Amino acid sequence: MKCLPSSLVTGCIKGPGFFGTACPGTPHRSPRRRQSGRKPKLWAGPLAAVLLLFVACPPLSDAQTDQATASMESIVVTAQRPEMSRETGDVNLDSTPSFYSLITRKEFEGKIESLAEVIEKETGVQVRQAGGLGSFSTVSLRGSATDQVLVFLDGILLNDASGGGVDLSTISLSDVESIEIYRGATPVSFGKSSIGGVVNIRTLRAQKGIHGNLAAGYGSFDTRKLSGFLSHKPGRWDYLVSADYQASGNDFKFLNDRGTSWNPKDDREERRHNAQFRENSFLGKIGYDFTEDARLDFMDQWFSKDQGLPTWNNSKLAKTSFDTERNIATVKLTANDVGPYHFNTSTFLDFMHKVEEYDDSEGQVGLGRQRNRYTTNRFGGHCLIDRHTDRNTLSLMLDAQRETYAPEDLLNSKNDLYESSRNSFSIGLQDSLYLFRERVILTPAVRYTHLFDERNGAVNLWRSSDKGSNGDEGSWNPQVGFKVRPRDDLTLKTNIGRYVREPSFFELFGDRGFFIGNPDLKSERGTNFDVGFEYCWPGNHRWVRNVVLSAAYFHNDVSDLITRVYDARGIGKSVNISGSLIRGVETSLKIELLSHFRLIGNYTRQDPIQESEIEAFDGKVLPGRFQESYFGRFEAFYGPVKVYAEHKTEKGLFYDTANLLGAPNKKELNVGASLVLRSFTFTLEARNVGNEQYEDFNGYPMPGRSAYLTVQYKF
Fold it and tell me: Which residues are within 8 A (CB) of 239 and not within 5 positions of it... i.e. 6 or more apart?
């Protein structure tokens, strides 16, 4: 399928384009299928042309891309929305003023790759991994802390009150259809606000007919992967099942400095010990269309992982482990064109049960012998109601959650450890105003969140007395965004907002043998500002076909910042410092050349500075944040063959608050190739070709050179 040549229309191609990035254009205000009994309005002039382009140009698969480039004269126009169509409750990417990235399944399908490895290629995104595939992984946006980033799975919040951020390694890519990354401004449709931003993961959705795939892969360090999914939609009923198995020995070679970085004479090459993992995931969905405008969905997502934890000295006798099991169940009702005012609504109830077990029975990692189990249960509801008119889109959000957190000391049944609960309620209102023939979109929003914490008195993991307490806190979080289209190929954006993050139970009480609690912590309060542009040229040049350029300046000011300080033993404690000031720029460029080549690149420069009353910390770089990042990718494709090479560099990261311990620069070169033969796709990847040695976390080396082969069958 090919979009109309730019010579026939004024402006850029609408909707998700060749690179999975939306070009500037007018907002499409129908979030889900056509509305029953209502005829669509036809707009005259250039706007009509743009809207027609939107429905005419769905995202291209790799195979479709090859066909399209081979026949420039072929023009196909359909009335159907692309497979990446928005449903009620999804963020309208065409009208949001937020700076975002959209990653579609075609960019990672058929590879042995983790969620962390996929998203770290985007501008403004930093991922830290504790030792390679399957290891603990966190995400930072625009220099934020990992706790300041919210991660959602189909709109369901994965962050929990226990804290520590979301471990990205517990999310299987086999279940994922697309990934949305919102940097800075958080759309009100999400139940909570975030200082750093939001990562929203959308799972697979059933399409008409029968669809599915089977994939198997093997690679370095005895890495194995088996996955597959099947969906069927014969009529009103539809179902989808997806399963994934992945495991690795993770016994890669690395240079062990034995804790004496100042003395290279005692360095020696070793294999990583006790870093193996095994994980399983399952996704099941059942849906029913009552009418064209009313639908009921059931979903259950289960994940399990057994993970070894290496010791700081890479002991061969290490047996420490950290196991995770999580189940999420959801029932969701969506309805469009409801009542005389034609409301759209999306309402769901969700339940999450998570059990984590930390076993350091021999005291090899933390302080003393520990074997603890942590159980989190959360039940909640979320409702989004919006109303579309020619002048605005008004959205109302309601969200309520109750979460309980219960640790157990499995080595001493007589210890009555603390139990905590958090009740939260959020209400948000957002209005997108379409001004000056939709050349200007003004989006004011406000969100109110109220928390009530109950902390039962007990003896905590550090055997210190905790009398118990109740916490009651509410916060208002206003924000406003502008999206201006002075030309059809140019969009200007700016946002400013106020956000709050409450301390987690992890920060308040500590756990897992690595951190000591601090019950006197205050909530973080931040103000985000950004301004930038997006330029999209569809291109009809002989050599240059498509160009997408974006750039933004961001400013993040946080007071009462929560950060971690470490003692000589490497044991951490969360404390409030005066604040932080993060300023930076981010740019990205995507180009299609000569119909067979693509160039993708981005650059991020940020200054994450501490503002502290402690002289040793004031003016220093926030720990765990890079200061400069480059990413570039080259793709060449012809017929069934596709090859690529990509390189990423990160500089200026410190492990500690006082900036005494700097991390080596991260430099990684990856190459790969794929071959499509009928329904089979063969993919060969080589990572870290230069065998660079680096660590995202001090004492947790990343793998060197590795290679993986995957075979996928689609039907």
Answer: 206, 231, 232, 284, 285, 286, 287
